[in-house]
Fold:
Amino acid sequence: MDIEKIRTLIALMEESELVNLEISSDDEHISLTRHYDTPVPTMMAAPAAGVAPAAADTKPAIKAGSVETSPMVGVYYSAPSPNDPPFVTVGQKVQAGDTLGIIEAMKIMNPLEATQSGVVDEILVDNSEVVQFGQPMIRYKA
Structure:
């Protein structure tokens, strides 16, 4: 593989703000994916007619403790397969580097690893839920 060719493709992606680029020929296949450090904007649905917006004082209390956030946009899976037990449960002690779940992005299964040690206080997302970049997923006890 020609490194200069790859550098040219990366520069092309940056100039045109492409997120994905795949090129195939008889003897090689190159697939490039660009990840952003800033949150991806999401659209919010407008409230249905006749539904009153929630009062400002009904916000849930913010709990103490550090959180693990999603490193990417994708689908969160709490277990390796539907018949297996979840990677973590509330009250479980985890070490930095332990697998907390899987995030599927573009048909690739990416492990969600603990960045710190602690006891799981709350799991903030459901199995098979779509998660956004930076979304809180696991809260540790304070």
User: Anything to note?
Assistant: Residues 3-16 form the longest helix (14 residues).
